[in-house]
Amino acid sequence: MRRTLTMLIGIVVVVALIGVGLTQLSGKTEAAYTANVIASLSGGDTTGYARALAVRDLTFPADYGAHPDFQTEWWYYTGNLADPSGRRFGFEMTIFRRALAPTNPARASAWGTNQLYFADLALTDVSGAKFYSTERFSRGAAGLAGAVIDPRVRIWIENWSMEAQTDDATVMHLRADGAADAPIALDLTTKQTKSPTLEGDRGLSAKSSASGNASYYYSLTRLDTAGTLTVNGTAYTVTGLAWMDHEFSTSVLSKHAVGWDWFSLQLSDNREIMLYRVRLDDGTAEPTSEGTLINADGTSERVALAQFTIESSATWHSPFSGATYPAEWHVTVKPKTGAPITLNITPLLADQELHAMAVYWEGASSISGKQGDQSFSGYGYVELTGYNAGAAPGYAG
To answer: b/e string for 169-196 if b means 16 or more Cβ within 10 A?
Structure first.
């Protein structure tokens, strides 16, 4: 997530959903929201919405599209890229869908809808030591925003889009740009090198022990990526790897959840690791927190909470929100077979805090690791939510 974990990672996302309402569902759109990721993913009236109650068959490319009978959904891309000179960048692009009501009553107006879309765009310029983020939102009507699978997969909000270049949607084109507040743009093509990884129990990712507190969740863990990133008018030709998470759910967190830590890690030995830990108000982790180890051949194994540890050895204090985040991590994963995997994860830039409708830290990071006698490196993304609740007026994580 997210970025957006959504709780796990998916929750991701991350990622980071917000409770948003429209003052009108037809006519002029005015956003009124509470910037609290946790509140929007827990509790509330779920009557009439579909719930993630049991394993369902996920099929592709159909399930790359929208699931409007669920309250919350997101499509979340992150990646670590570099230009030919070695200048490194991180990027995050997430489109969220939020249902404002379980059904969409018939209206004469083409503007009428029960679906709201919003999006985050962020870019980390490592060499320039600068982090940029921006956002936008729109109603899912009148062609302004939406998600379709016919004739090909396309998710968009105004001129930001994630669009399939092949019928099976294994090649996607990402386009987005900022404005004066974030003079950035991306134009990237991603190509799957592994089949979708179904997180949790065959795609059913539990976020607490309560029935329905779960999401349907899959990941594309290794996407060959190429294109351009633009920063302050300068376009950089870049290549590297991206990761995509897609989750849909209705009310996934328990009332005791205060935030989550989510990791998407791409190792140089062609393996990937996803981990998420939902933090509870008593200082413990939600027992259903878990992860996935994806092998080089695309096979995967679930990693239970008891099989991994996450320890932080540093912090970063935000001068903007007043939040204090963990800033370096030592992670140990114990696979079912073989030696433990030990990882050191370091942010490529300390300040990668998004100041959007919700405030959270989501950043490009480097990895060094070891398993037995084998050493490896890599890059990944880390998403942190819930660290700034009450830290400063106007901010809630």
So the answer is: bbbbebbbebeeebbbbbebbbbbebeb
